[in-house]
Amino acid sequence: MLFMKIWLLIVAAISLINRKVCAYEPEFELDESETSSGFSVRILKFGIAGSRGITKGDQVKILLRSFSPSVESHIVGTAQQDFVAGKHPVTPLNQAILNMRVDEIRRIGIPFGNYGKIYYEVHVLSIE
C-alpha cells in the first residue's frame, strides 16, 4: 500500500510539470541487464552523431516515460520536462543523462526497495 502511494506521488509530480500523462507500453523490451537488482542504464537509441552531449548545468528538454513491471499499467506516465542538468528532482537521473545527445533514448532502472525497479525512458529533445 505504501509503495502504491509513493508511486502515485511520483507519477503525479511528473504529470504536474507539464500536465501531460498517458499510459505507456515500452517499445523496447527489458533485457537481462536491466532486470538485475541494481541500478541500470541502457541505450535504446543513439543520438545524433557529432552533436555535443549533455553536461552539468545545461538546459535540457526531454520526454520522460516512467513505468514499473510490478505496477499496473494504468499508473505509468509520459511527460515533457525542461530542467537544468544536475538539478532534476529524481536524483539518479542527473548522472544517468550526462553525455546524452539530442535524439538519444536511454532507459534508467532505479531500484525501489522490495518492489523492484522504477524505469525511466529519457528521450533528449534539445540541449542549450
From TrEMBL:
Record's keyword terms, sorted: Signal
Q: What is the protein named?
A: Peptidylprolyl isomerase
Q: Which residues form the signal peptide?
A: 1-23
Q: Which domain of life is it from?
A: Eukaryota
